[in-house]
Amino acid sequence: MISIIFHPDYLKHDTGSHPENAARLTSIMNLLDARGVFDNNPIITPQPASISLIETIHDSDHIKKVEAHCRAEIPLDPDTIVSKDSFNAALLAAGGAVQAVNEIKDGGVAFALVRPPGHHANPDRAMGFCLFNNIAIAARYAQSQGMLRVLIVDWDAHHGNGTQNAFYSDPSVLYFSTHHYPHFPGTGWLDEVGEGGGAGYNINVPLHAGANDADHMYVFNKLLVPIALQFKPDIILVSAGQDGHVNDPLSGMELTSAGFGYLATIVKGLADLTCGRTALVLEGGYNLEALAESVFEIITAFDGEMDVPVPEDSEVSVAVKNRVEEVMAVQENWWDF
What distance in Å separates the CA atoms of residue 87 and residue 79, rounded to the nearest whole number? Predict the structure, then answer.
């Protein structure tokens, strides 16, 4: 069983014809309903996150600025559109991520289908469609509940610069990101490894345009799996952005809907071997059909109904093999491969 976190007020974050719009969630919910997902997987309605929870990641000036811009319906930047209901939706999005953690305290899987997304939101700045960093707030909440070692897996096609910045010097949170590079927001090179005590706990795998299912599975198996097993997380959080889909208009990656299910299966295997807890939080994905199908495949994977192929060596690009070797050469200062 997977707990599905959703609130209808997410749809009130009105961005007009912007790529990050309410139709993203309605397309997901309609497909899941049509395929009977809600028959066995309950929909949980979250509460808004408190300001004190938001402040575990964001400074008070940022929170006040977001609220003021939403009230006045003034964009926070050219990419980050808001409406009068966006502040409440953003509190509910963070609250949805927190609720996902609550649902799995004793083990299990939850998927927070939220908007606005979060992983570009920095402690002091909104950007890239994101107001508050939902998954970072969930990580701090999990730690307050005794889940001290947090693994964040970010498979969104865009680097989660806000999440990286929130934990860059913190060894209690391991951040692992695959992303299209160079691409928005321009961060996420392999030498961004963390600083101070957090050095080695920030792992970026920048990938070329065209990286496909086999390429991503190779990266996860060669890098994420051995590192995560050494880290031994108490909870796994996933920044589940499906904009790496081959049909997505905002990236050049070539994952299929089934491919996201394959990545989810690898993460499920890690959870089974470590903590037994996985909370996914929706990030990007801007082709409505591809996004909905990918979310369905992810849920199917966590239900244990997916057969995962093992990619042939010849199916993995030379560029990705070389990139994995480069990341290993950087990260072997901290991890065994």
Answer: 16
